[in-house]
Structures are given as structure tokens and as C-alpha cells.
């Protein structure tokens, strides 16, 4: 067989092709007289002719045009959307969709991969409505009390924290003693008496941080007062509550969507 010198570009194309198809093709390809079209496992096409290999530059299809994402603000709203199936996406003859618990306050409904680009379309998104809680920041006791009253579930510990913050607000003279485990606040009551309030740290509280349909995770917090009488709560669980919240959401959705053509993944 007559030897045909290959260009540098053809050599690179040949080496790339053999990388995908295997060196055992080398001898077979060199003996071929007619042009042959090959496709590798990644969908790239090559033509082999006269000892030269050239990759075909094919026009790639356009990206998928995606519909506007449906939004809801409760888990029940997302469940009702899937159950109603207004776009006929979740029938038994359709590919299974993914309900992804993305975070404690976001759930996404995602379609299977489609087209040449293997794109995933986000069909719907559910975002929790929750208060804006400022942790790790000192604030005036009035503002602090409003935050605790409106953003935390009622409990004995919440009442104790509110009582302490309210007492500090009403008095002019305050002394604190902190041993790293508990903080003792001495508040002057009038001229001749004083009241001691002890709050053991960390104090367990339950803020509203996830969807209202599921149980709110409780967490330990470190309560602190500074020299100006301002109060702050510092998170003390290393964000462990997020894992609990995500699992609560997953279990709620799995139970509610039994029998529907979706997979719940957290």
C-alpha cells in the first residue's frame, strides 16, 4: 500500500480518534481503500480516507427554549401543582421528574435531561416565606424583643429570654458576669433592691427558618449582652439544623407524592 504522508492536523485527529476507539483499529484503518465514517462514544464523527483521519465539524443544535418557571411559596402549593399536572408532564408514559430539596427554604422541580446539550429544565420552584432573623449581631433590646416574639416559636426558653431582655431595657444600671457557660445579669431594681436573672448558655430555641408545613428544628443559641445593654443571639450548632430541616421536607414530600411520577431527592 502506498504511503501517504499525513499533515500535522490529520495526525492529531487520528490520534484523538484512536484514543476513543482503540489502537486495534490502526491496522484495519490503514488497509481501507474507501472512505469510512466512524462515530466515537461521545458522538463525534470522523472520516478516514487514504490513511488520513479528519473530524467532521457538524452543526450543533440550538439550545432548548425553556418555559417560564412556575413559582410557589408553600410545599402544599408545589404538591397541588404536581397532582393537578396542568401541562401533562407527570403521566406514567412520561420520564420521571426530580423534586430536589435544594435547601431548608428552596425546593426545585427538575425535568430529565433533554437534547444534544443534555440540559435540565427547572419546571417549578418553591421558596419558603420566613422572617428575616439577624443572628450574630447586637441590637437594641426593643428590637431584639420584637425579633424573638415574631420569629421564634413559643416556649419556656423564649419567655425567659424575653423576660431578661425586657428587664434590661427598663433599668439604667446593669452588671454582667460571664464564665463561658452561663451569663449572670444583675439588674438594679430601684434604689435598694436588685434582681438576678441567670440564663444558661446555650439556650435552646426554635426559630421559623423553613417551610411552615414541616416541623421547625430547634437549635442551641448563645445569648449575650454587651456593655451598652444590647442583646444578640449566636448560632451554636454549626448549621446542623439545616440537615434536619432538609430531611423533614424530604419526608413530607415523599409521603404527599406517593404514586406520582416523581423522585424526591435531598
Structural class: alpha+beta
The succession of helices and strands, N to C, reads HHEEEEHEEEHHEEEEEEHE
Q: Which stretches of 5+ consecutive residues score pLDDT under 50?
A: 1-6, 189-194
- Whole-number count of domains: 3
Rg, Cα atoms, Å: 32 Å
Query: Main sheet: which strands, in order across?
Result: 4-7-6-5-14
Query: How confident overall, as mean pLDDT?
Result: 81
For the biggest sheet, the summary is:
5 strands, mixed
Number of E-state strands: 14
Approximately how much helix is present in the residues? 25-40%
The termini sit apart by: 61 Å
Overall form: elongated
* Percentage of β-strand residues: 25-35%
**Count of DSSP-assigned helices:** 6
Question: Which secondary structure elements does this structure contain, and how are they paired or packed?
Answer:
Elements: H1 8-21, H2 25-30, E1 36-39, E2 45-49, E3 52-55, E4 70-72, H3 75-84, E5 97-103, E6 106-110, E7 122-127, H4 141-151, H5 156-170, E8 174-178, E9 182-189, E10 193-200, E11 203-205, E12 219-225, E13 231-235, H6 240-256, E14 262-265
